[in-house]
Design a protein that fits this description.
The chain is about 40% helix and about 10% strand. It has helices at about 15-25, 25-35, 40-50, 55-65, 85-90, 95-105; strands spanning about 70-75, 80-85, 115-120, 125. Strand 1 and strand 2 form a beta hairpin.
């Protein structure tokens, strides 16, 4: 099946645009990366991302507001919080992995990726791919078509 260009049928705002409104900047992606690597505390996230405190604070507040992270107190005096992925946030994992794989292929400066994902169940290195949820085949750009939702 070929992807066809039906711009006249395309909705004015789609799911990609709405997602970009919530997670579409450099700092947010780096915060999400760190959250998936187990970073939860402000200082650790700041050190890893290099974000200034005001930018990091702003992005964390937005991610909490969008329901992607939740803020939990872990100390009372002085009050300190950590940030954990919600179910909505954990659903971003495939997008982050595919973005990482794209970066490994197209932006790498060495012969191999800087890290390898290891599947906990089988213990093997894995390079996850997008697959059709119906037939299980890997999906590539020319394998899909689209239809505008009918309400």
């Amino acid at each position: 099946m070929q992807v066809t260009n039906r711009s006249d049928d395309r909705p004015e705002q789609d799911s990609v645009e709405r997602a970009i409104d919530q997670i579409g900047d450099r700092w947010t992606f780096l915060i999400l990366r760190d959250a998936f690597f187990g970073q939860r505390r402000f200082d650790d996230i700041q050190k890893s991302t290099g974000a200034s405190p005001n930018i990091l604070s702003d992005r964390l507040k937005k991610l909490v507001g969008f329901g992607i992270l939740e803020k939990r107190a872990y100390q009372d005096r002085p009050q300190r919080h950590e940030y954990r992925l919600t179910e909505k946030g954990r659903d971003l994992y495939p997008a982050i992995v595919l973005l990482m794989r794209w970066g490994d292929r197209w932006t790498g400066e060495c012969d191999r990726p800087p890290l390898t994902l290891v599947h906990k169940t089988c213990g093997k290195a894995s390079a996850p791919v997008l697959v059709c949820d119906e037939c299980g085949e890997a999906i590539h750009v020319h394998d899909m078509d689209w239809e505008a939702a009918r309400y």
